Amino acid sequence: MCRSIKTLRRPDQPVTSEEIRAAALQFVRKISGFQKPSIRNQAAFDQAVTEIAHASEKLLENLMTHPSRAAQ
After folding, report:
1. Whole-model pTM?
2. 29, 37, 60, 70: which one has the fewest Cβ atoms less than 10 Å from its Cβ?
3. 62 exposed, middle or buried (CB, 10 Å; 0-12, 13-18, 19+)?
4. CA of 39: how far to CAs of 13, 49, 53, in Å?
5. What does the mean pLDDT of the chain come to?
């Protein structure tokens, strides 16, 4: 779907909040069809980015890795 969104779950380095927000922004741009929304739609666009970034952060925090794989 969004080839410009990169995988953020990386075992070798932590993800930054800027990376999460950038991925959320790309996702909202893709599903809304707007690269930059009109002034009239800006609040809804920004709210969606914030909510998706928050949900993405929670997901990444709650994902568990398989113990035997993490030790390898």
Report:
1. 0.78
2. 70
3. exposed
4. 37, 15, 21
5. 85
Supply 36's token pair.
Answer: 């930059």
The one-letter amino acid at 47: Q
Residues near 25 by Cβ (< 8 Å), separated by ≥ 6? 49
Quick: pLDDT tens for 5-39: 677 777 778 889 999 999 999 999 999 999 999 99
What one-character DSSP code corresponds to residue 36?
S
- Evaluate if residue 61 carries a pLDDT over 80: yes
Contact assessment for residue 11 and residue 64, using Cβ atoms and an 8 Å cutoff: no
